[in-house]
Specification:
globular
């Protein structure tokens, strides 16, 4: 093809395009055109998005995405949960807790007195779950929690040769409690019919955690031999444990089949933990839950409590009365009296020195005081005095915490005082009195310092109330100071003031 033919063909292709009336765009109109195009694209996008939302408005959404979409366009509020109404949730209180107490018709009359020490009519919420309905001629006490009868569990497997099938029934209390469908429940708290709860402190502990998350909260046994036979990863049922609503909702779906899968396990708490392990949730340990898997005198355990609220005590029929020369229930009632005056401070330890006399004071508030006519170290004072044995074998060790032996030397032992009375004062203060205890042995140290110490008959302790917000801070033992009397060594009374620690303050011998 000749070059002239090629040019004629090219002109034929180009000519039609030359006839299209394209606008002539000046350079100064480029910016205006860009804005118009952008506006057109945005309008198309918004119309399309609106159409999409209108088409999906009635489609089902999970609760998570409903909450997420509502919170997406709200300002974030730290440490505040946003509920569907857009208002902040109220803090956890006792009405948000549903108790499930494992009991039986055979043991309830003997153990109900422990429950009646802490149960509050029209305030606490929950049930005692019995194996059979009480006899018709038995009137259920108004001071006891209401009861329900557990469902039949004869179809479940139980292959632990040394255990009791009642473990199945008690494990299912969580499921039966959940299926009641009660409103406003954030936490399910399980315990035994001989568990003494301290509800205000339980609320304080649970309020630290987001109840919308899956939590399993409790404590281990004090005796290592129990934790080895059972699990370190388990919250012991006698000491009580708490399960948040979301975890309970997941757990009840698998619980019955799971109980059969773990038929060889001894206790209900073992079965519960094993089923929770299938969900993947781990135990959150709180040192205020006490299984009390010990034998003998619980004094050392209560006189050196961890820096944590006292939440529960268990097995009180298997240890000596917590106050000497009293019946068991009455001795617990005495401790509960102190608890009612200042829940958060109950059996919290404080200790301090009086360098002018070379004395030391260790206080377990609402329980006991120890007076040492010398200056033991802080580490010595905070360590638990081993006044008890292990649960299973009645051995001296081991325990899940450090202990120190009880000296038989009367010139090493402290002078001990037990709480005698307590009263509330103005401005949120309390004053408690502790009376010297005579163990009846007749053995007293004949050293001069000890003779002076034995002349002290009473210890008076003043303290501000330990309010719940204190436990939201990093745990620190509070400090104290011994207030010297004007009559000096001739006084039979010591006055002690508990307070928050000053900056750079420590319990250090000079």
């Amino acid at each position: 093809m000749s070059s002239s033919s090629i040019e004629s063909f090219r002109d034929l292709l180009i000519k039609p395009w030359k006839t299209i009336p394209f606008p002539t765009i000046k350079s100064n109109d480029h910016f205006s055109l860009f804005l118009k195009v952008g506006l057109a694209i945005s309008t198309i996008f918004l119309i399309s998005h609106f159409f999409y939302l209108s088409q999906n408005y009635h489609q089902p959404h999970t609760h998570f995405y409903q909450i997420a979409s509502k919170q997406m366009f709200q300002p974030r509020t730290p440490k505040t949960l946003i509920i569907e109404s857009g208002e902040a949730e109220e803090p956890t209180n006792i009405s948000h807790i549903l108790f499930g107490i494992g009991g039986s018709s055979a043991t309830w009359q003997a153990r109900r007195h422990y429950n009646e020490l802490w149960w509050r009519q029209n305030t606490t919420k929950g049930f005692v779950w019995l194996d059979t309905k009480p006899s018709k001629n038995e009137t259920w006490p108004e001071t006891s929690p209401p009861y329900k009868v557990s469902a039949d569990t004869s179809s479940f497997k139980y292959t632990c040769w040394y255990g009791s099938r009642s473990a199945i029934r008690i494990a299912r209390i969580l499921k039966e409690s959940f299926e009641l469908g009660l409103d406003n429940v954030r936490w399910f708290v399980m315990g035994d019919d001989d568990t003494v709860f301290f509800p205000d402190n339980l609320v304080t502990v649970l309020s630290k955690y987001d109840h919308n998350q899956m939590y399993y909260i409790g404590g281990n046994s004090e005796s290592v031999e129990q934790d080895v036979v059972h699990f370190y990863t388990m919250a012991y049922g006698g000491g009580g444990f708490a399960i948040s609503y979301p975890l309970a909702a997941e757990l009840v779906k698998i619980l019955d089949g799971c109980i059969n899968r773990y038929s060889e396990y001894y206790g209900s708490d073992q079965k519960i933990q094993s089923c929770i392990s299938e969900i993947g949730v781990q135990i959150t340990k709180e040192p205020g839950f006490h299984q009390v898997d010990i034998r003998g005198n619980p004094y050392g355990l209560l006189a050196s409590h961890p820096v944590a609220p006292l939440v529960s005590l268990h097995h009180l029929d298997y240890v000596d009365p917590i106050f000497p020369n009293m019946e068991r229930v009455e001795s617990v009632k005495k401790l509960v009296t102190a608890y009612k005056s200042d829940p958060g401070r109950t059996i919290q330890q404080s200790f301090c020195y009086d360098h002018t006399k070379n004395w030391s004071i260790s206080i377990s508030w609402g329980y006991s005081v120890e007076l040492y006519p010398y200056l033991p170290t802080a580490k010595y004072l905070e360590m638990v005095s081993q006044t008890f044995k292990t649960w299973r074998t009645w051995s001296d060790a081991p325990f899940t915490f450090n202990t120190r032996p009880v000296s038989q030397d009367s010139c090493v032992k402290p002078v001990v005082y037990f709480m005698d009375r307590i009263e509330g004062l103005d401005r949120g203060l309390t004053r408690s009195g502790y009376k010297r205890y005579d163990d009846g042995s007749g053995k007293e140290c004949d050293k001069v310092d000890y003779k002076v110490a034995h002349g002290i008959h009473y210890v008076h302790v003043s303290a501000p109330m330990l309010l719940p917000h204190y436990w939201k801070q990093a745990p620190r033992r509070q400090c104290c100071e011994i207030i010297n009397n004007v009559d000096g060594l001739n006084s039979t009374v010591i006055n002690v003031k508990i307070r928050g620690c000053h900056r750079f303050e420590s319990v250090t011998p000079r």
